[in-house]
Amino acid sequence: MNLEVDGIILYETPFKENSKIIQVLTLKYGLIGIICKGVLSPKSKLRAKVNKFSLVRFNIIYKENKLSTLINADIIDNYTYLKSDIVLISYLTYLCELTYQVFKESNNNKLYDILITSLNKISNKLDPLVITNMVEIKYLDSLGIKLELNKCIKCGSNINILTLDSNLGGFICQNCYNSEYIVDKKTLGTIRKYYYIDIKKIVNINISLKVKKEINIFLTNYYEKYTGLYVKSKVFLNKLISDN
Length: 244
Ligand SMILES: [Zn+2]
Hints:
Blueprint (H helix, E strand, L loop, with lengths): L1 E14 L3 E8 L3 E7 L18 E7 L6 E10 L8 H21 L3 H14 L4 H15 L5 E5 L8 E5 L4 E4 L11 H12 L12 H18 L5 H12 L1
The protein binds zinc ion.
């Protein structure tokens, strides 16, 4: 079936001499594997149009559950700004790799919208760490992991919430407190907002560095402990963040 479809290239592998196979996330068809014959040849007109981490309008011969074949491609967004420096490339890489892994676990086509929206927001110079952490929180739903952000993880009380702990996996109230690190008061309210906010509607972000870092540390540890996913690019990204 001949098909026109928009999708973002999340993954690519070289194939034979001049070809490659790309994994493309689309809204309607989920993840599609597309074989791009001859595109690595210097003569190919499609060479510059099917780059990793680009949003592309594809013309393909679509085969469900098999490799589709590329006929033509036009770039919708190359995310040039995100590819312009090492920190932004790291965010782009991480978000795409995370989406690829979460999609493989969940088969949830909604990830497409979340990813494209977040890349647009970061392209519009909104804080990449905040947007990335929001995506991580939203993806937990697709992984079937419910992050409890309304009550104490130990006793279920919703009053006197004192801190947030990634080992226990949520909020801790004053009564249940042992010796966990106490986060900034604002961190508790802000992480809840990350979960509930519609990323599309964000026009500006004003969050202190301390709160941002506490939320990122919590989510990094939470992912490690509860999702079973390992996304190598987050390790590198965190190194860049902590150097900052
Ligand atoms: Zn409690």
